[in-house]
Amino acid sequence: MSDVVEKTLTALPSLLSLDSHPGSAKLSSTSKLGNLIRGITELTSKHEEEKLIQHELLAIKEQVSSPNTTMRQMKELMVRSIYCEMLGYEASFSYIHAIKLAQQGTVLEKRVGYLAVSLFLNESHELLLLLVNTVLKDLQSTNLIEVCMALTVVSQMFPKDMIPAILPLVEEKLNHPKEIIRRKAVLALYKFYLIAPNQVQHIHNKFRKALCDKDPGVMTASLHIYLQMIQENPEAYKDLTPSFVTILKQVVGGKLPMDFNYHTVPAPWLQIQLLRILSLLGKNDQSTSEVMYEVLDESLQRAEMNHNITYAILYECVKCIYTIHPKSDLLEKAAKCIGNFVLSPKINLKYLGLKALTYVVQQDPKLALQHQMTIIECLDHPDLIIKRETLELLFRITNGQNVTVIVEKMLEFLCISEDDHTTIDLVGKVAELAEKYPLKYNEWFIETMNTVFSLGGDMMQPDIPNSFLKLLSEGFDSVEEDRKLRLFAVNSYIPLLRGEPGKLPQRFLQVISWVLGEYSHLREDLEPAEVLSLLAKLLDMKNSSSETKSWVLMAMTKLCKGGADASVTQEVSETYSSSLDTVLRQRAHELQYLSQDPELRARVLPRGAKPETLEVDSSLSFLDRFVSEALAAGAAPYKPPHQRQEELDQSKALSLEPYGLSLPISMSSCSITDRQSPTLLSMSSGLSGDTLKLDGIKRVWGREGYLAQREPVEEAAQVEVPSPIQSPGRQGEGDSLHSQTPTQTPTPEPEQEKQQLASSLFVGLASQSSVSLMGKSEPMPQRFRRKAKGQGLGSSFIANEQISSSLISPPSAVDNLLCNNLLDSNNASELAEQTSQLSQSLTTANGTCHAEAELTESDTKGCNPALRRDNCVVAAGPGPHNDPGRLTEVCLDSYLPAELSGLSHSEIAPLCANQSLNLSACHVQKEDSLILVVFIMNSSESAIQQIPAGEVTSYSVAVGQYSLTVKRPAVHVEVVGTVSYQLPAGTSQSLQFSYKVPLTSFIRPFVVSTEEYGTMWLSFSHDTKQNLTLINDNQEPLTATLNALKKKLQLHVVEVIGMEGIVACRLLQDLPCLMHCRVNAGWLAVWLRSPVPDLPDCLIYHCQRALQSL
Amino acid sequence: MIKAILIFNNHGKPRLIRFYQYFAEDMQQQIIRETFHLVSKRDDNVCNFLEGGSLIGGSDYKLIYRHYATLYFVFCVDSSESELGILDLIQVFVETLDKCFENVCELDLIFHMDKVHYILQEVVMGGMVLETNMNEIVAQVEVQNRMEKSELCNQN
């Protein structure tokens, strides 16, 4: 320590000279910080430190509140308070001054102010509201550093309610010329997305733009957002897969500037991020996975083992390969890679290798076999973390044969572990294993559970003792087995109670008392009196909790028989019948009465009763009458706690809504009809005991697991694996395991031990039948099976497959856009590529729309439709309609894909034609999507090549389906596309078309309750108001008008109250629009609100049209 | 997401504390103490990852740390971060400090705690990794330093 002080002293002068400012205030204050630090380092006790800091804080407090303190002094004082706060002393008086400094100071002072604010406060601190204006001002500043500071503080913390206030400014920064600002803005928006996802719903487009930014740094930042969003909803971003693959390809190929290299590895963090995204996208999705095989292979090969960071990439790569749809040669390479990790002398890599193995063995348990000796070594590793990870791995490969060895290893570890968290986790796992494989190890099961209970103590999950007792009480098929198990439990508990029960955890005592109460009669040589006195001893222990005591009293109630026991029970019940704890008092009274009345006791607590089913009416419907009476008498309707909390929050928070809206949510809307909605739920609880709560407990192991005898046909193969000694076949395998181990005989003694351990640990892994023993390994074999099936299918299927892959493999225009921006490649050549193949034509068309909307921001089309390809281009054979003259629209009807033909579709409209092709299209409304069906009709004499469906022979029709989504609403959505194709002569041609769809085709009814409507209404920011004509031919104009709208536009009428009505609809993918209608002076005043800009305006147009046409 | 960045010395004295998730003041101190307790008893030849400290959020969280002479640099992260990636990020951060302070030592961190914070802000922003390229980070810090100098000149 002394040399630190010395260094401090020598450092001080140079510090002072650094601050060349001659002002005395500065000098003295700097030395004040120096003094403080020096003072602290010289101290010897915590107490002294406390005194010194308190003194310091007093001094700071005095100075900050003095009006003479300049901003510059304030800056220095802030640093000192930050220091004190870091040491754990609160300096709350300085918070407001930190905000002031950020508000009023010069740039440098601001910087300290912002830093202090971000260290002192948190998102929900009320003082933070004072900062909003400052942030607003700085976001608009021309000084880049101020903007950066504002963005930084915003991403660190910002009050959720105030996000709308600064959102437009932050969005604007996405177009800032400086990439550092753009990058920070992207991260700030990501932060907003995390804390208030619905606030940034509408800027998904901008995220896409950030992904295409010409600066790779900005693109990297946007991956944070995509990783998060894809995690939440992978389906919505499948279309981006080729783009991510292209980016990764470019990065791996070293196309980025050298600046992005880290130890000669190109942008490793970017690669890691991309690999994670790809694994999310490719999970359980064969076609998406196929897109990425190539680049994954390349990443594996490119990563040379020269630096830590390449291992980081490899690790992600391996994980990705094992997550996506499997491909055998990649899996092989990945497995080899894992070997490199596991065998590495570097301990960090070993750790990751074990982690990767743990991940992988669920799918391919044989991989663990290859590394069995390493795993055994890791089990004895001095590093507890490695050891734990190894146990985790073993947990995954447990089967009926090695369970005892693995559990033993886990219990060994539990004895030395000091970390609570690890203990809880591991105890849960041991219990899970023990319950999963009790089989014939009755005694082992009870003993293991005893160890679990005594080691796990009171920290473990409460469902462990509960499910243990449930198992015990429900029993299994054989009465004799049940009896043995229970008897063994009783036998093992008695000595424990005779010993030192004070050391046992409360949970264990509860389990013991329940078991003794239920089953101690099974042991015939045991006098109930002895059990009673043992139990009574528990009651007298000082550290017994009252919960334990009530379990004990229950057990005693079950056991007491009168006679000799009477004195013990009498005494106990007298002691506790005056207890302050009401539960104990009740139990004591029960004990008293039941012990005196054996008949009643036999009725209430029958011995050996089977669990009965209890019906629980969780909706409490029997109280409905009471509720309705209370409501009729004027009581306030019930609101669930979260709603009350929300309302409280709303009343507290600043309102950003304009005044003057009277929402039609009245008391009547929350009437009893809503309250009856929870359905009557009957629950079967399987216990005769009354204090056990078993509902909601996970049934890890139940009847099925044990009932091998009952369903021998299905279960025997999976559960009844013969033990190694009994089965010669298994023995052989055990031997082969031996021979697989790297060291051959003769082996030294410890080595042999290890091998023995290995063969007991990894037994049963090699054979297929035992693989299915592992519950967790199941998904993988299934996936393999599915793949095999795919290969085994007929040629038509394969053909289809090829079509879909050919549809995917060419880069779409989105990629091209990326390429352009990233690598400045030639635009013209890209264009040429775009139209080179017909098979990609529609994607290209879609991409063009993208490009136009994004690059020029022009509104010429007024819309921005995104085509999501469904991969179902169906080639319709020539069939009976191959007469050119009869190829009319009527005929086209019959080409509609079968799955769509049942749905209503629009008229099939001709799009365009040339001498060889005729294009027509229609759209079909599905419940959750809008499908555009394009008919490509060959009107020429010769076949046309490379149409999406491959080849279209003369006079036949090919049909393509595309699912449409709307990115920006417009009155009419226009889809523009190009079909390019090759004539047999080899000449390429293309045909452009456009197709208009009214917005109403995308509108679907949106079913919400009035309450949901109310909360949504407040959160939507875009609105429009207009008066519409009422339909007057009916007695009730409002209902008539609403019904007309409902019919024409597929709206959902939520509720009509008097002269007001509320209506809701949504734009395909959950973009809601709410409508509030009120009859006012012969007009229908309509107010529309939505989170999507333009949607209200477009919708009101269609409402007008709909009413006019009536 | 990075949940917290803690720097403390071999005696457990905090040198820089940055939480990206809210914890009450006393909880923060407890986390620092527990983390120090966990990290300090580990040898240098064991792995740099620690799992499941019970205080800072359970099994999804990891402590990734590096030990440099007198200082421990500990990053507390969730499962969305790559272990080795963070380990190298710590290295980048320390190398940047070394470049900015010219042979950084514990004292620099003590006396220029605010500066260290500014440098850190250029590496990690609101819990997200902002920049991993040392030259970029240094360049950003340089811009601020120049501004600092010019302001001081203006005042004189």
UniProtKB/TrEMBL annotation, chain A:
Coiled coil: none annotated. The keyword Membrane applies. Subunit of novel type of clathrin- or non-clathrin-associated protein coat involved in targeting proteins from the trans-Golgi network (TGN) to the endosomal-lysosomal system. The gene is AP4E1. SMART domains: AP4E_app_platf (SM01356). Keywords: Golgi apparatus, Membrane, Protein transport, Transport. Belongs to the adaptor complexes large subunit family. Adaptor protein complex 4 (AP-4) is a heterotetramer composed of two large adaptins, a medium adaptin and a small adaptin. It comes from Astatotilapia calliptera (Eastern happy). This is AP-4 complex subunit epsilon. It is found in: Endomembrane system. Residues 1004-1108 form the AP-4 complex subunit epsilon-1 C-terminal domain. It is a peripheral membrane protein. Residues 712-758 are annotated as: Disordered. It holds the Pfam family Adaptin_N. SUPFAM superfamilies: ARM repeat.
Automatic annotation (TrEMBL), chain B:
This is AP complex subunit sigma. The lineage of its organism: Eukaryota, Metazoa, Chordata, Craniata, Vertebrata. Belongs to the adaptor complexes small subunit family. Keywords: Cytoplasmic vesicle, Golgi apparatus, Membrane, Protein transport, Transport. GO terms for biological process: Golgi to vacuole transport; intracellular protein transport. Part of the AP-3 complex, an adaptor-related complex which is not clathrin-associated. The complex is associated with the Golgi region as well as more peripheral structures. It facilitates the budding of vesicles from the Golgi membrane and may be directly involved in trafficking to lysosomes. In concert with the BLOC-1 complex, AP-3 is required to target cargos into vesicles assembled at cell bodies for delivery into neurites and nerve terminals. It holds the Pfam family Clat_adaptor_s. InterPro entries: AP_complex_ssu (IPR016635), AP_mu_sigma_su (IPR022775), APS3 (IPR027155), Clathrin_sm-chain_CS (IPR000804), Longin-like_dom_sf (IPR011012).
